[in-house]
């Protein structure tokens, strides 16, 4: 029997399909299931987007973060689009994350794990199955991997062939990311020079002081003749919400070395607040994979909810396996997060705790724009650090929706974006993102919090 045939009937492969017997929320209303299966078969024949060894390495890195020895920076688009998968836009997103990471690394005095919401973040959950405009009702936009944003029946029809296009766009995105992060673009000295440009534009004394400290550290290394691959190359991983099961399952593969199943659509996969039911299809499928798994927890999450997820997704209590990404809202985090942290700790679990300060702070302006206030985002971030200090646990990372472009989607920040300014460059098709300047400002402010922890 060939290796391929042996793998196709292995118990691990068969067990991956147990999710099909369970309820799968937030899935598209496909009209042609035979075509869906045809696309799934074609996806299953494609090369993996990421490799088991890379996934294992990320799990080791996240284990160090859970122990308080590293910090996770996870960020990128709310929802990637096929149109925006250009070399310039991918470069600018990577550049923004690299700039943030340099500042956070110095502030934390520890490694920063860089994970992009990239090369797969094409599907989005929706609060309603349909959208109505001017008396016309059409299916909701579920992300480019399902349907189009244009408000026409043709565009909004769920199209399985988009999954194949999503795979190929993810592949080209990953190729660029690997080239940028391994080919000199990530040189630490160059990244710091970019940040000095940010400082000159903000003229904020707080940021200037930290930037000057980083500059002295780099000059010291140069004076000592320090030359290392760590100065001009960096590890960079990709992640997305594993929402569209008809895409994720064909890209789940059995590793030839270990016989273990991996999701090869991304290094880290997460489950959203809307699909984290313990008896749901998403939790079931991801429980079978060896990838690091994230789970979004909102303000209603209980210790029992969290521990049931631990038992299902991380029964062996494997360091780096499970990340809880809290999205509580600025007004609630200081009340609801400390008892959750303490309860999980006292139950003997040590997941990596990360904050998503974006999703709990959405508002809609009078002129109809979905937005977030930069001050609310920072307020939740500070509440996250305060909650961990109160309980004695480690604030392990941040999860941010951001772009490398100069968009006007979130209010405030050093540029003082106002409601009237939102229409200038509001480009997101789903949720508002921090722009390049706001993202860097957030990094400097978080670095200050990390420095406090080390003092």
List the helices and strands and how they pair.
Blueprint: H1 3-8, H2 11-15, H3 33-44, H4 52-66, E1 71-76, H5 87-108, E2 112-117, E3 130-133, E4 136-139, H6 153-156, H7 161-182, H8 188-202, H9 205-223, H10 229-232, E5 237-241, H11 245-248, E6 252-254, E7 261-263, E8 268-271, H12 281-287, E9 293-297, H13 303-313, E10 322-326, H14 333-346, E11 352-355, E12 362-364, E13 370-372, H15 374-391, E14 397-401, H16 436-454
Mean pLDDT: 92
Counting DSSP H or I runs of 4 or more residues, the number of helices is 16
Helical residues, percent: 40-55%
Oligomer: single chain
Low-confidence stretches: 1-11
Order of helices and strands: HHHHEHEEEHHHHHEHEEEHEHEHEEEHEH
Form type? globular
Instruction: Tell me the major beta sheet.
Output: 8 strands, parallel
Radius of gyration: 22 Å
Distance between the termini: 61 Å
- Proportion of residues in β-strands: 5-15%
Strand order across the largest sheet: 11-10-9-8-5-2-1-14
Q: How many beta-strand elements?
A: 14
| Alpha-beta classification | alpha/beta
Describe this structure in words.
The chain is an alpha/beta fold and 455 residues long. It has 16 helices and 14 strands. It has helices at residues 3-8, 11-15, 33-44, 52-66, 87-108, 153-156, 161-182, 188-202, 205-223, 229-232, 245-248, 281-287, 303-313, 333-346, 374-391, 436-454; strands at 71-76, 112-117, 130-133, 136-139, 237-241, 252-254, 261-263, 268-271, 293-297, 322-326, 352-355, 362-364, 370-372, 397-401. The strands form 4 sheets. Strands 11-10-9-8-5-2-1-14 form an 8-stranded parallel sheet, with helices on both faces. It has a two-stranded antiparallel sheet with strand order 3-4. Helix 3 (33-44) runs parallel beside helix 7 (161-182). Mean pLDDT is 92; it is low at 1-11.
């Amino acid at each position: 029997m060939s290796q391929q045939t042996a793998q196709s009937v292995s118990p691990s492969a068969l067990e991956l399909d147990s999710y099909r017997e369970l309820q799968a929320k937030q899935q598209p209303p496909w009209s042609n299931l035979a075509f869906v299966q045809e696309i799934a078969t074609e996806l299953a024949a494609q090369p993996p987007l990421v490799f088991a060894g890379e996934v294992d390495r990320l799990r080791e890195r996240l284990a160090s973060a859970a122990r308080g020895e590293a910090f996770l920076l996870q960020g990128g688009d709310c929802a990637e689009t096929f149109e925006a998968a250009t070399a310039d836009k991918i470069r600018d997103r990577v550049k923004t994350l690299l700039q943030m990471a340099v500042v956070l690394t110095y502030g934390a005095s520890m490694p920063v794990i860089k994970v992009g919401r990239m090369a797969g973040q094409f599907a989005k959950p929706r609060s309603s199955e349909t959208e109505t405009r001017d008396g016309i009702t059409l299916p909701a936009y579920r992300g480019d991997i399902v349907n189009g944003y244009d408000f026409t029946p043709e565009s909004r029809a769920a199209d399985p062939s988009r999954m194949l296009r999503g795979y190929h766009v993810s592949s080209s995105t990953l190729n660029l990311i690997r080239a940028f992060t391994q080919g000199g673009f990530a040189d630490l000295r160059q990244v710091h020079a970019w940040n000095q440009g940010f400082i000159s534009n903000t003229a904020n004394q707080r940021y200037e002081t930290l930037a000057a400290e980083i500059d002295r550290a780099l000059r010291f290394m140069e004076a000592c003749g320090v030359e290392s691959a760590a100065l001009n190359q960096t590890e960079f991983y990709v992640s997305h919400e594993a929402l569209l099961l008809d895409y994720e399952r064909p890209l789940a593969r059995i590793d030839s070395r270990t016989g273990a199943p991996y999701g090869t659509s991304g290094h880290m996969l997460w489950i959203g607040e809307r699909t984290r039911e313990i008896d749901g299809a998403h939790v079931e499928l991801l429980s079978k994979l060896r990838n690091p798994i994230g789970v979004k927890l909102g303000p209603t999450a209980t210790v029992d909810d969290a521990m049931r997820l631990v038992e299902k997704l991380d029964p062996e209590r494997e360091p780096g396996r499970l990340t809880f990404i809290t999205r509580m809202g600025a007004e609630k985090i200081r009340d609801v997060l400390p008892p959750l942290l303490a309860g999980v700790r006292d139950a003997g679990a040590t997941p990596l705790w990360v904050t998503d300060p974006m999703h709990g702070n959405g508002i809609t302006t009078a002129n109809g724009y979905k937005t977030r206030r930069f001050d609310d985002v920072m307020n939740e971030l500070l509440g996250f650090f305060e909650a961990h200090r109160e309980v004695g646990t480690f604030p392990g990372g941040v999860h941010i929706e951001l772009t490398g472009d100069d968009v006007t989607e979130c209010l405030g920040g050093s540029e003082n974006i106002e409601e009237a300014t939102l229409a200038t460059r509001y480009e997101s098709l789903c949720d508002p993102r921090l722009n390049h300047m706001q993202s860097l400002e957030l990094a400097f402010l978080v670095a200050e919090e990390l420095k406090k922890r080390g003092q």
